[in-house]
Amino acid sequence: MDKLTSGKIAPKTGEYNIVSSKGKVVGSVRVKKGNRMPPTRHANSHFEIDG
After folding, report:
1. How far is C-alpha 44 from the chain's CA centre?
2. 38, 9 Cβ separation under 8 angstroms
3. Which residues does 45 contact at the CB level (< 8 Å), separation at least 6?
4. In which element (H, E) is residue 19 found?
5. CA-to-CA distance for 40 and 51, rounded, in angstroms?
6. pLDDT > 60? residue 51
7. CA dist., res. 38 & res. 51, Å (int)
8. What is the CA radius of gyration of the chain?
9. What is the pTM of this model?
10. Model confidence over 9-39: pLDDT tens digits?
């Protein structure tokens, strides 16, 4: 499982879950490979994609 923070480059195109600092999925966003991950609404959140 890849974990990315806002501003990092997406390693592949796909649907990324937004995971809170407590480990709860709070949303999702689709990002294309090579684009930067968008800002999140929750402090200390990160993005995860399977694979």
Report:
1. 12
2. no
3. 6, 18, 19, 20, 21, 26
4. strand 14-19
5. 22
6. no
7. 20
8. 10
9. 0.88
10. 999 999 999 999 999 999 999 999 999 999 9
